[in-house]
Write the structure tokens for this entry.
Amino acid sequence: MTTTIEKMRKGSRKRQLREARRKSGNKKTVKKPRRKNWTSESIDIWDDANYQTEERIIPRGEHERRRNLEAQAFDETLLSSELASDIETDPAQIGLVVEISSGLCRVEIGDKTFVCTLRGNLQTHETGYSNLIAVGDHVTISQEGSENGVVENVLPRRSILARSHGRILSLQQIVVANVDQILIVAAWREPHIWPQLLDRYLITAQRNNLKAIICINKIDLIEDQQSFNATIQPYAKLEHQFVLTSTVLGNGIRELSSILEGNTTVLAGLSGVGKSSLLTAIQPSLNLRTSSVAERGLFRGQGKHTTTQSSLWKLDNGSVVIDTPGIRDFGLKGITKSQLASWYPEMKAVSGKCRYADCTHINEPECIIKTAVETGSVSKLRYKNYIAIMDKLPTS
Ligand SMILES: Nc1nc2c(ncn2[C@@H]2O[C@H](COP(=O)(O)OP(=O)(O)OP(=O)(O)O)[C@@H](O)[C@H]2O)c(=O)[nH]1
Ligand SMILES: [Mg+2]
Ligand SMILES: [Zn+2]
């Protein structure tokens, strides 16, 4: 609801800015950010091939000029007015970002949802991130009509899940914000389980200080119990919650529901593993879009996503979940070869006992990790993945 007082506030804000611009002698109008259609075809998929950045490029110095201008305008008049404190503390204006698409976002305040643009003076500049807001963010908005608004500020985050930027190596993209835990979903088949990816996700969870839960879905597709056990046992042994599910047979759904209860959880996993299906199995009324690998018409379903945007849902059991499009990789940027073992808790536990202090645990003699692999206290599968991941890391 746009109250008269808010309209007045907006009107006077514009007047103040106009006046300040006139005084500073700069007649140029500040361009509004490009508005894209909410329903536009462009999709925000975190797959390297399709990756798009929302970073806007502004001329050097423009950011500072705008800040000075605002400061100048508001120094003069607003400070003593009651309106200023009103803007900062009005709890009705703080909302939760539940979906983002091409520069627009949906913000929930109570039982209302507003489609919002971002205030032009918000910049990614020097934040180290390629995006300004993410699903799960708490933001302040000013309303424009009953269904629209403008995001004015992003409130401090208690946690983030980030991934390496596809093209600009020094940047990271915030995938979601303010979550407690990450549910790593893999399918036993369709798409085929890929243990190395599980290890990469586990490293990402640790780097983001998020509790990780491993979920192996589609256990109705187990064709050989022995080979299943051999593959998943190393993961069941880790100190993470571990759940086996089938949305077809109903296995593990109640257990998964209680793991989510009371927490904010982001689901991550390849496209087609069944993330949306699991959420719908927990709460059928969600009825999230899902589609089979065959329907996608692609081998292993790795190229086409059914879920195309992250979206936040509040479930009846009191949990908050964020469904994401298939994320192939979070990137391990910043980890060097000599640090990799420290992200494997079972290796870290015995580290420092090798003959060489900078042992990479591959070819060096008298290596305690290699001995641990032989005796079985470090799994052969996890160690094999360790070597494969190591191969792609920089030396220092
Ligand atoms: N056999 C079997 N199929 C499943 C199971 N869970 C989901 N599926 C099927 O797997 C396909 C993909 O499921 P989705 O839930 O769309 O997968 P997703 O992970 O959300 O995929 P994206 O949205 O593309 O990231 C659908 O056809 C589901 O019916 C399961 O436990 N067993
Ligand atoms: Mg999905
Ligand atoms: Zn070693």
